[in-house]
Amino acid sequence: MLTLPKKELIKFVIFAVVVLTMPVWLTPFGASYPGLLQKFAIYGLLAVGFNILFGLTGYLSFGHAAFLGVGSYAAVWSFKLLTMNAIPAVVFAVILSGLFALAIGYLSLRRSGIYFSILTLAFAQMSYNLAYSVLTPITNGETGLQLTLQDPRVLDLAFSEREAGLPIVTLFGIDMAGYGGFYFSAVLLIAGFFIAQKITTSPFGLVLKGIKSNQNRMNYTGVNTRPYTLAAFVISGMYAGLAGGLLAVTDPLAGAERMQWTASGELVLMTILGGVGTMFGPVLGAWIMKYLENIFSAFNENVLHGFFAFLPDNLESVVVLIASKFVGEGWHLTLGLMFVFVVVFLPGGLMEGYRRFVNRFFNGGKAKAEAPDKQTQPAE
Amino acid sequence: MDAILIQFLNGLDKGGAYALIALGLTLVFGTLGVVNFAHGAIFMIGSFVAVAFRQLLTLERVELSETELSPWGTALEIRTPYALEWFGDFGNVLIDYSVPIAVLLAIPVMYLLGVLMERGLIKHFYKRPHAEQILVTFGLAIVLGEVARTFFGANPIPQPMPEAVRGAADIGILFGMAEHAVTYPWWRLIYFVFSLVVIGAVFAFLRFTTFGLVVRAGMSDRETVGLLGININRRFTIVFGLAAVVAGIAGVMYTPLLPPTYSLGMDFLVLSFVVVVVGGMGSLPGAVAAGFLLGILQSFAAMTEVKAIFPGIDQVIIYLVAVVILLVRPRGLFGRKGVMEN
Q1: Boundaries of every domain in chain A
Q2: Tell me, what CATH number does B295's domain have?
Q3: How far apart are CA B200 and CA A250, in angstroms?
Q4: For B99-116, what is each residue's pLDDT tens digit?
Q5: CB contact, 8 Å: A335 with chain B?
Q6: B313-328 and A113-132 helices cross at what angle (nearest 10)?
Q7: Range of the domain at B132
Q8: Are A68 and A263 in contact (CB under 8 A)?
Q9: What is the interface pTM, i.e. ipTM, of the complex?
Q10: Number of structural domains, chain B?
Q11: In B, which residues are within 8 Å of A335 by CB distance?
């Protein structure tokens, strides 16, 4: 059960080592602090899960942020009602978002292609709007769900006295706010990566790939594709729920804006940027995006002036003026442009770019580019 | 009865906006076969054309007065808009009617923008899968939104409507009700009529001109039209420009009702896609009907009586309708057979 083909096993080991040593090799990039590392692990997990749906079956969901939100809410409620331990929170997040995904998937998967995208988008927007308005008793509306001093926390208080101040999230005593949270998320990311590899190499994964390349033919072959796509949808929703739960574990509050469709869009961007349908691609995309987001939005004019100080004064101020539109608040502009360029010139994402690079310079350009997932299209 | 009429009227202007955006979206989809997620951004850019026009008109020359002093002892600043200086009273009229006049300005601007978008980016995506079209136009929408934010800031910029139409029309009298029983703001009424005129113009253009004939032919069978020796690509560029103009002027006229902000495009995009799907992909009458239908449904759902029965219905009604329609009648209300089905 825990075996993998040799090639996959090598990938897995490399991945695990890379993830666990992140605090070390990210130091030169200035990204080695817990807050960002946690994000790397969590959004990597989210992208791996999304890839199981989009990369394998080709169904483009525009509503995955809803599961992220559900996971966060479930985790925070577990903190409020039961215990500050991270394990139950994460378990509840996965279960609840799985159920949620089952319901949405059951309905949405009756259609394919762009209709599926719109249906998931509609469901996600409904959840978002409801979380903001009617469901305020559960979601605490605009303020977001937070821990309070009066929370019942049944399990915790059965064993110990209520302490002064807000409690912190722990894993049997390990504080989850700093590196503890990162390693917890990283272990789950590696586990999630392993499961994704198992799925990809299994007969189940093969059926999913078949659905992507030609669903009609799969049907004619006598495979009822609906349960397979539904399973993929639910699994991928559970990944998103887990990621949402982890977001709450590392920072115990949940807001409705996590469910907004722009958040789903961001997830799609990450996956595309790295390379849909590849194992490393989505994770890589998530890391690069979170890294650039952090770096670019921290830039301001002073930093830019320092950066371009070698230029003559007049030129410098012009360059800084232009560059300042792309950093800080304008980071989304960079993101949008980057995204357009990737889709136009490198539809397979960075992983395809890497493959092309290797082919050109190391195989003498003779070997034909093997691009199994050259085009990702919604299942038809 | 009054309440129902009021809600019905309230839905009309919003419905008009939905219908206009969805019309362009459908036109582009039906002819070019492109799913354009940047269409909402075009609406937003249109509304900023109105903002920019007004800002241009109200550019002021600041002079320091030589005789008068302000209360704190410095020379008083006299601000005179250039428009007043050059045109006199006519300048005042210009400023007052900046929004309707901006429509005239928006037509060439939006047409140019549309053509640029189509030639520069969209045309390379005709043969690519829909998912990639969605992705690239989504990226483009982000870029357009951010460009607007760079120039106009993140806060909504309210646009006043012309002085003469700030009041409300007493619609009730027309239906033989008491005075002031049913009143309706003039501008909303104007917007409704405006949207009807634009929709009528687009339909007439497609129905009664040779150009429209070719476009309709291209919508139903692009390949054959191309084989007949007609340069369909050039016409499709014009269609894209036209769709951009429709969305753009819809945005201009909507500014007094909803202050433009850079995220406007994204907000309207999701809604207008839902409208298109409900109406039926590729069906122009469907887009218009669904636009008005959803606008009116939305305003009915906002009634307190309805909300008392189904709490929160006003937030989700549009999506709910979309889900039900897609599951029960996947082609939408007026959808043609075979469009995006396999």
Answers
A1: 6-260
A2: 1.10.3470
A3: 56
A4: 888 899 999 999 999 999
A5: yes
A6: 160
A7: 2-56+97-328
A8: yes
A9: 0.78
A10: 1
A11: 142
